[in-house]
Every structure is written in C-alpha cells, then in structure tokens.
C-alpha cells in the first residue's frame, strides 16, 4: 500500500493474528505458504465483565466491532476478496465450535 516495490510474503509455519495480516499484505501472486503452514485469525473479544457497568460493556463492544470492521477492510484490500466473503468466513469459524 505504501511502497511501489513488489512485496513477497512466505508462510513457513504458523501465522496467527497480526502475522496472518502481514502474510496477506504481499502483492497478488507473491504470497506463498509451504505445504504444512497454517494461517489463523483471532475473533475479536470483549473482555469478561466482572464488576463493569452496562455502559462500559456497551462502549467496549462498540470498540470491538469497529476493530473487526477495520480488520475486514484491511484483509479485503490486501487479498482482493469482498468484505462480505471475509466477514462470512470469519463468522463461520465461530459457529463451528
């Protein structure tokens, strides 16, 4: 996004969270993963409530949703997939458990 040079990214082991985002930032056709490599995304979470007031939980939840939107937007830009497809895939992971 910020450079004109070709960016090659190679996944050799496990790319989790931000490492997965960096892996996706390689130029199209320049992103590679070895046969046994794995890329995993974390679901955004709201920390446990404990003694928090309802308004604090609501504010934190809005922040988490904004982070997820930014995350989906960035992955959409770097991979070329639609935001809807990325959102559907990340939600699908949640429903498998």
Summarize the structure.
The chain has 97 residues and is an alpha/beta fold. The protein has helices at 18-24, 54-79, 83-95; strands spanning 9-11, 14-16, 31-33, 38-40. It has 2 domains: 1-42, no CATH class; 46-97.
Polypeptide structure, described:
This protein is α/β, with parallel strands linked by helices and 97 residues long. The protein contains three helices and four strands; from the N terminus they run ββαββαα. The longest helix is centred in the C-terminal third of the chain and has 26 residues. The protein starts with 8 loop residues before the first strand and ends with a helix.
Task: Note the main attributes of this structure.
97 residues; two-stranded parallel sheet; 4 strands; 47% helix
């Amino acid at each position: 996004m910020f450079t004109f040079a070709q960016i090659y990214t190679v996944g050799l082991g496990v790319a989790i969270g931000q490492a997965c985002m960096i892996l996706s930032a390689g130029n199209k056709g320049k992103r590679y993963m070895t046969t046994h490599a794995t890329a995993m995304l974390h679901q955004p979470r709201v920390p446990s409530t404990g003694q928090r007031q309802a308004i604090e939980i609501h504010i934190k939840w809005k922040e988490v949703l904004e982070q997820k939107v930014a995350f989906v937007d960035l992955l959409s830009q770097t991979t070329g997939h639609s935001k809807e497809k990325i959102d559907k895939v990340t939600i699908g992971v949640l429903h498998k458990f």
